Amino acid sequence: MKKIINIFIFIALSQISFGQQKEVLLIGTMHKVPKIVRHSYKPLLKRAVKYQPEAIYVETPHPNDSISWEYLKDGWSNSYKEFYSLSDSLQKHYNFDQYRFQQLLKKDFNALTPKNLQSIITSFAYLRDYANYDFYSYIQQYGIKGSSKPTRHEDGDLTAKLALQLNIKKLQSMDDQQTNKEYHQAWQNCAKDGGENGDNEINRKLNKKHYNKAIVPALFGRLGFYVNKRKSLKRLDQLASFSYVKNQTESCLEGLNFWNRRNHNMAQNIGSQIVENSATRSVVIVGAAHIYRIEKELKANFPEITVLLLNDL
User: Fold this and answer.
1) Where are the domains of the chain?
2) What's the pLDDT tens digit per position in 217-275?
């Protein structure tokens, strides 16, 4: 009898342990897609909704990542520059009400008045939370059903619509752009080297191969699934990490180092937040070139988290 009781206890504990197992789905994106394939994010949205994540991680810097924001305030993105300027001004003059802000976030999306939305948007700008500033600005512009026409970008066609459909009130940031300036400088220098030693021809052929293989899937509305195939993810990583080169020049090696550092930090941002929060299923929406290394980093450093790719579902 005691043996039978122990078996039941073991089964119960196993079920509890299994229930607490956390997993993350990595979805690689194409960022902004051409008009001819403007519906490319629709099937990815359908697949993501079916997965039913409880948390969404996106490719924007964390509000407290002062090093990334120090670069971005004068960096490559006009949107980030405008946002930083607004945030900087609000932090000096805005009277932020934490309690009211939290109460507004508890409201259903359809219960938010225009005044409520503006208050939330201003608060997220004050907090330097670009991901949610952008998300609620999308709601303000298109309503809770989202844009009837494709925005052609992951932020609108995938992230925002996924959050709205699953009633997820707050997005999680996971990007790291602390060395992005140095990475792009190394990229330019590596390309200059490649023009002299022939490696740019390898780059051209690899890009052409990726483009040609995408044509048929794109025509049938499956560009997103093609991009998320393991072979595609590996090819995109080769291009972004300069690992295709035959001549490892100092610039190309520097670029690889900065690429590895960024993806390592992104994976740390994702994994640490997943471990700390209560969500058992999370989704990461990030440029497809990052998936290959983020997957490896998560599996190596967070073995307690099950890592899935889109085409694994």
Assistant:
1) 21-312
2) 999 999 999 999 999 999 999 999 999 999 999 999 999 999 999 999 999 999 999 99
pLDDT at residue 313 in the model: 87
Within 8 A by CB and 6+ apart from 260, the residues are 241, 293
> For residue 173, what are the contacts with CB-CB under 8 A and spacing of at least 6?
57, 58, 60, 61, 62, 63, 129, 130, 131, 269
- Exposure of 38 by Cβ count < 10 A (0-12 exposed, 13-18 middle, 19+ buried)? middle
Task: Give one DSSP letter per residue of 128-178, joined into a string.
Answer: T-HHHHHHHHHHHHH-TT--SS--SSHIIIIIIHHHHHTT----EEEE--T
**231 CB-near residues (< 8 Å, 6+ apart):** none
3-state secondary structure 61-120: ECCCCHHHHHHHCCCCCHHHHHHHHHHHHHHHHCCCCHHHHHHHHHCCHHHCCHHHHHHH
Q: For residue 131, list its beta bridge partners.
A: none
